[in-house]
Amino acid sequence: MADELGEGDGLSSRRPDRRSGRRGRRRDRPEGAESPPVFFDPSGTRWHRLLACLATAFLLLVGSVAWVLPQALEPTWAQEQAQEHLDPGYPRELLATGDTEDIPLLGDQSNPFSRIGLVEQLDGETVLADPFSDEVFRVLTEDEVATVGGSPYAMERFGEVPDKTLMLTFDDGPDAEFTAEILDVLAAEGVPATFFGIGTNVAENQELFRRVIREGHMVGNHTMTHTSSWTEDLLSRQELISTDREMRSVAGYATRLFRLPTGDPDNKALPLLQAQQLGYLHVDFDLDTEDWQADADTAVQLPALDGDGHIVLMHDGGGDRTATVAALKDLITQAESQGYTFATVGSIVPQDHLPDAEVEADLADDATALAVAGLTVAPDVVMTWLFWFGIGSLTLMSALYVVLALIGHRRQQRRVWPEIPQEDLPLVSVILPVFNEEPVVERTLTALAASDYPHLEVIAVDDGSTDDTLAILRRFAQQWPALRVLTQPNGGKSIASNHGIMAARGQIVVTLDGDTLFEPQTIRMFARHFTAQNTTRPVGAVAGHVKVGNRRGILTMWQSLEYISGICVTRMGEGVAGAISIVPGACAAWRKDALQAAGGYSHDTLAEDADLTMTLQRLGYAVVQENQAVAWTEAPMTIQGLAKQRLRWTYGNLQALWKHAGMLFRPRYGFLGLIALPYTLLATVVPLVFLPLTVLMAGINLAAGNWQPIAAFAGFVLAIHAIICIIAIRMVKESWTHLLIVPLYRIIYEPLRAWLLYASLLQALKGQMIGWYKPERTNSVLDLSALEQDREHPRSR
Asked: Please, which contacts does 674-678 make with residues 24 or more away whose CB atoms are closer than 8 Å?
């Protein structure tokens, strides 16, 4: 048949872009297009402006950190010390002058406070002096001089607890559950206590920390992370300084009181001296309830009271403290019955070491608190939120789509289609845009010629092919009168498709790709939706069921499973809810007047089928799914080919979502506007923002041996996906061998999705167009008869 050039008949006629070259090359803004492509930057300066803004922000951040950080690292308690005594390495150097394995100990376990002093001679007497100032603690007795011997320093325990006095102390909090319960008990009994808090817990439970102070209790420093490692001097200092600043920022509370994690100051000279250098006073205990060893079902064995005064160790954090709460009630009752009174350690602390509950937090304090929240609290909060959001949204949306899909499948099975005489069937125009499809186009045409639909025309539009595609089309047209061949200069798939639509005579338009093989019933399955209206809105488009026809390895089987589950469950469910957002151009049917109303395929996105589908939804047309309209396509057989194809799809879908953002959260678009599109947006934005953090936290947890939550989440996702796949395979009677891919599905999907999202975002920010990628045609789709046999007898492959 003679070549034809279509004329406009209501579609917006746009000139082909003769400057664009061949498909597969990046194109500038199409000449003659009504609007530039979505995200396209005609000026070419967006990326440079964005980099300049990021660089400026980075420099401001670095400058701010460089200004604040030295202040935040400074000790919080000003002391009159010689400059060399302020050096972080000085405590280690001082201890090196003596025998750290055999430090003389003055005092005993009943003395609550610990410090290290230099042994010096002053006016003929042996004294114990402050290592960091000119202060003399006291003169040593003759017995103490003998105990000290030739050591240059000694450890001293000092202070006294009055008889019949209990000083309750609680370590490792504040804890959201157990600190609150302990405070309730103390408030009910009118008992004061001293809490040694961990900095990260203070940051996480700020209001609870303020409650501790508000109710009259005293607070001490238990380090930022409950560290037991004191090998790095700078980090050791910051364990104390940052906790101090955290408390100042959260509650305006400054404390010199300090307790070593795991206790035992007599054998931990270095951290004790480091804390002393910074102005802190170590507070020990002499009555250990060992509540940290008890679980929820084990009672704490309280030590007997002997009438002496004691500092009692208990815990309000670090684990399940149910037993501690119960023991606290018993201890208070027991002590009061024996005439004991309760006090905080403030009653015996030297006056110059008493906490200050009315300090004004400065910039360094607030900056420290912000950094602690960002590095310790925020990741846990975000990861917890992401975990439950992932579990909840996956469960809810999967259940919703499965139920809707089953309803849709049942409806399709039970629907009775009216018998229409053959002569009354409408003409269907099949549009086949092709570009360099020499290896496959003849098979595509042969499959169309085998269609059982009696009234159809096929319009093949050659988009400037450079191989023998046009010659094959012309030869086939000579043998098949239903085929018309149109030619045009290379302009892209959307222009070629519009060219064919404009030339179409039928009121039903079916589209497919050059490598797609229709099953004989496909066009008939499409057409019946337009001849037998079953929706309140006129049907504007029908989405078919695209299947992978070259199932020759893991990668193509993976794509096959993806197509089956995505179409049979997700799109079928969306069809029931009237929320289909993508009708695949490779297997679709359209009402021609709907195409005219929409202006045909647009040129401003790479996902022209998604763009057109959402336009029809906005215009009020119904979009439905037909699983019996089956087309077999050739999927990429290499990772590189798959990545290029999916990059175009992902970028194009982002363009379409951005272009139709006005449909989001709009009740007039029903399920599509209120649920489907917002969920698509969330599924895009959440990984973009949080994926790096998720990978980092997963790596940290795996390195720490905490793999159970990750395994549980992965197992849950795997189970949900397996259920969806089983339902989808059952619906369309596909090969059960697809289930072998389910365990591997996420291993391929997650890295691919991450790369696609970030690559698409980068291209959008740069304002560049991603070139149209057409996979290499290998003519690897199996014969339809073989594919049918594979579905019915999967083991015969």
From this structure: 675/577, 675/579, 676/574, 676/577, 676/579, 676/581, 677/581
36 — phi, psi (to 5°)? -70, 155
Helices (H), 287-377: 322-337, 363-372
Collapsing DSSP states into helix, strand and coil, what is residue 187? helix
Instruction: Give alpha helix (H) positions in 590-741.
Output: 592-598, 608-618, 639-659, 670-671, 677-703, 708-732
Give the integer Cα–Cα distance in Å for 170 and 197.
Answer: 8
Q: How far is CA 559 from CA 531, 550, 727, in A?
A: 33, 10, 17
Neighbours of 330 (CB within 10 A): 12
Q: Which candidate in 17, 41, 171, 365 is catalytic?
A: 171
Q: How far apart are CA 290 and CA 265, in angstroms?
A: 17
463, with CB counted inside 10 A (0-12, 13-18, 19+), is: buried
Pairing label, strands 153-158, 105-106: parallel
Number of residues written out for the chain: 797
Contacts for 401 with CB less than 8 Å, ≥ 6 apart: 569, 570, 573, 574, 724
Selecting among 315, 353, 499, 529, the annotated active-site residue is: 315
* 3-state SS record for 268-296: CHHHHHHHHHCCCEEECCCEECCHHHCCC
- What is the per-residue pLDDT across 435-464, written as a single tens digit (0 to 9) for each? 999 999 999 999 999 999 999 999 999 999
Contact between residue 628 and residue 544 where contact means Cβ atoms under 8 Å apart:
no
Averaged pLDDT, 37-43: 91
- What the block records as the tokens of 569 is 């469950």
Distance (Å, whole) CA 204 – CA 755: 34
Contact 656, 765 (CB under 8 A): no
Helix (H) / strand (E) element for 518: namely strand 517-518
Give CA–CA dist 216/713, Å, rounded.
Answer: 44
Taking the C-alpha atoms of residue 703 and residue 696, their distance in angstroms, rounded to an integer, is 11
How many helices (H) does the chain have, and how many strands (E)?
A: 25, 21
Tell me the whole-structure pTM to 2 decimals: 0.80
Q: Give the span between the Cα atoms of 434 and 566, in whole angstroms.
A: 26
- Assess whether 171 carries a catalytic annotation: yes
Q: Which of 565, 553, 521 is nearest to 778 (CA)?
A: 553
Give 281-330 pLDDT, tens digit per residue: 999 999 999 999 998 888 999 989 999 999 999 999 999 999 999 999 99
